[in-house]
Specification:
Elements (H helix, E strand, L loop, with lengths): L10 E5 L3 E4 L7 H13 L4 E4 L11 H10 L5 E4 L10 H16 L4 E4 L5 H13 L4 H11 L14 H12 L1
Parallel strand pairs: 2-5, 3-4, 3-5
Antiparallel strand pairs: 1-2
Length: about 170
């Protein structure tokens, strides 16, 4: 299922209408951030897993997210699981992120996982999720490419760094 709002927010469905992965939903202007948040809320997202760090120097969006959700009579949960840009964290960190995703999905919540550009850190986490489902490294990379194929960033490498690829190879070998 293709994400129809890629012109507003670069994203891609991992599990249609349940698990969405993509870019940072904030912006330098409140109007642009509100447009991104609106498409997430309209898609039924009620949990956001944020992989960005303070070192990314991004404009905060949480207050806008919670205000938009409240205005529509909803609650959106936000969880920070910071990973350095182009970097990786230890296996326990990825296990915690995956446990959070599974817990939220099992509770019937729809999840959005994001980093800054929606490529490296995000695809590494989704790759770990796919590896946990038994896919080989080559199949993980092919599946990520397939899921992202209809997006404006489809030609960009995912994951982005050697460290991210090495981590996925190790996770697939577990």
């Amino acid at each position: 299922m293709e994400w129809p709002h890629d012109d507003v927010l670069h994203a891609w469905w991992v599990e249609p209408n349940r698990l969405l992965a993509g870019e940072y939903p904030g912006a330098t202007t409140p109007e642009h951030a509100e447009a991104k948040i609106r498409v997430l809320l309209d898609a039924g997202i009620d949990t956001v897993i944020d992989l960005t760090t303070d070192a990314d120097h991004l404009t905060p969006y949480r207050a806008l997210l919670h205000a938009a959700a409240e205005k529509s009579g909803r609650t959106v949960r936000h969880f920070a699981h910071p990973i350095p840009d182009f970097g990786v964290i230890d296996d326990a960190g990825y296990d915690a992120i995956l446990a959070r995703i599974h817990s939220e999905l099992d509770a019937g919540r729809n999840v959005y996982v994001h980093c800054w550009g929606g490529k490296g850190r995000t695809s590494t986490v989704i790759g770990c999720l796919l590896a946990g489902a038994g896919l080989s490294y080559d199949d993980v990379i092919a599946r990520i490419a397939e899921l992202r194929s209809g997006t404006r960033k489809a030609a960009d490498a995912c994951p982005e760094s050697t460290a991210q690829h090495d981590l996925l190879r190790a996770r697939c070998a577990r």
